[in-house]
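Q: Please design a sequence for this.
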């Protein structure tokens, strides 16, 4: 056999071996959807890991909304992930389920009892914000007597309102996001309202209204909203928190950067109508790669109907919108 033929033969064998290896790596199994099936449940049964549901969705591009699958549909299950999941477990992962918050105990005569304290400090709770269905109406920050467009604690600003106000009236300074859509379903979720500070009216004459920034959590800009102030009730705790079996997704964060870390604020797609309560704790999992990777722990600060605000309590790697959250007790 000539040298050229040997090279051609070797090349063909290489291509065949590569094709076989690729086929083995991409081994699939078909699953016929039955009533009540969800991608979460299918991943739990077929791949022994519910957190792999985004990988099933990725392999079935015809599924537009992963929350809507119907009986008799045929879904392809990527079985090659089972082996990878086994290897990942054998390699070991951080045991987030073992995480414990310290209990807050009374050092006096009531040493055996637990003393309830605020879940977080007042400023952190205020600044965390929330997702609202609509942008509230009220007032807006104008310029300042000095002509500045950015403000901090103690600064005097002009304010424009669509209703009468009086001296000593207080308002939250609120920054609004663009319309937020769910990163998976594309459904409209509302607007993130970030509370950047508190302002108090110091002058209210016809044609001119001035306010002073009395609290500033972040830099305040001209054009931010002034929403009527109300006392926020901060959840109180003795350090014993629920770890409910609820799963969902981080849909946004309070910072403009794509990745969040310890004590940053994130927003999730479950609320009190889904069983959430302030203080609830969950693990977070990054699901964009070949395998889901647990990367942190979040704690719920406040809940609305179907959304909640949470703080990152533990971060082994950056947490980002699109990460999922799930039961902290499950490995």
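A: Design:
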């Amino acid at each position: 056999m000539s040298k050229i033929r040997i090279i051609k033969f070797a090349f063909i064998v290489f291509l065949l071996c590569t094709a076989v290896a690729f086929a083995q790596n991409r081994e699939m199994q078909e699953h016929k959807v039955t009533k009540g099936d969800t991608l979460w449940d299918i991943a739990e049964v077929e791949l022994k890991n519910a957190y792999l549901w985004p990988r099933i969705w990725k392999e079935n591009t015809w599924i537009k909304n992963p929350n809507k699958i119907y009986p008799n549909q045929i879904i392809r299950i990527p079985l090659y992930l089972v082996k990878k999941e086994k290897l990942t477990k054998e390699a070991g992962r951080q045991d987030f389920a073992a995480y414990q918050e310290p209990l807050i105990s009374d050092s006096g005569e009531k040493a055996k009892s637990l003393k309830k304290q605020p879940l977080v400090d007042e400023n952190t709770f205020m600044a965390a914000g929330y997702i609202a269905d609509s942008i509230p109406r009220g007032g807006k920050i104008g310029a300042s007597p000095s002509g500045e467009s950015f403000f901090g604690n103690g600064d005097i600003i002009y304010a424009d309102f669509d209703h009468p106000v009086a001296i000593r009236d207080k308002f939250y300074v609120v920054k609004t996001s663009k319309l937020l859509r769910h990163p998976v379903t594309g459904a409209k979720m509302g607007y993130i309202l970030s509370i950047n500070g508190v302002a108090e009216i110091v002058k209210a004459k016809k044609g001119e209204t001035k306010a002073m920034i009395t609290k500033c959590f972040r830099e305040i800009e001209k054009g931010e909203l002034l929403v009527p102030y109300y006392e926020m009730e901060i959840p109180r705790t003795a350090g014993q928190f629920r770890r409910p079996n609820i799963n969902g997704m981080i849909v946004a964060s309070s910072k403009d950067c794509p990745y969040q870390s310890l004590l940053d604020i994130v927003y999730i797609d479950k609320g009190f109508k889904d069983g959430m309560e302030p203080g609830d704790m969950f693990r977070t999992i990054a699901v964009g790669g070949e395998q889901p990777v647990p990367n942190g722990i979040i704690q719920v600060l406040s809940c609305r109907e179907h959304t909640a605000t949470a703080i990152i309590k533990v971060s082994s790697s950056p947490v980002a919108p699109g990460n999922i959250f799930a039961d902290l007790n499950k490995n």
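Q: Thanks. Anything notable?
A: Confidence is low (pLDDT under 50) at residues 6-26, 87-92, 103-113. The longest helix spans residues 3-25.
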